[in-house]
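Marked as duplicate of an earlier ticket. Keeping the data here for the record.
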Amino acid sequence: MEKTLLLPDGTSLSYEIRRKSVKHLILHLENDGRVWVSAHPRCQESEISSFVAEKSDWIMKHLKTWEHGGEAVAQYSEAELIRLVKGLCEAIYPYYREKGISYPQIKFRKMTSQWGNCRPKQGILTFNKNLCYAPYECISYVVWHEWTHFLVPNHSQTFYAQLETVCPDWKRLKQRLKDVKL
């Protein structure tokens, strides 16, 4: 369902609403400039419109970057990224081994909505191949974040308190990841 939002400066912002079984509104910005929002079927259109309006400065900033030829630039090749992430995993493993965590299987694949994934019960960490576009410190943050899920398998306050002990500037790095262009 295509919608248009008139911004205070007179420009219009078109976006699509895609109804999905999601808990929260999720904003998607495609490289070709398309904007869409994942929303639960019961979510009111007025709530979605307010959400898009709230994010409009961020959306317009990124759309303008792309209009001016802001191509995504890989910081690492896929092979370099794999070596880098595996090296980080090996370097931080002693901390988790002391807490009784077995070394997991490490996988890589392209993902569209997350930088990494941890499946504690299966002992699997999966990292997004698009991390090759992120700076080193953000990649390090993602590795710490995913490993921490072996200790706390959700995003509760306990999880973030544990993450803060190993990655004190996680909030800044999480924010910085949002600016990584793909």
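See parent ticket for discussion. Residues 2-67 form one domain.
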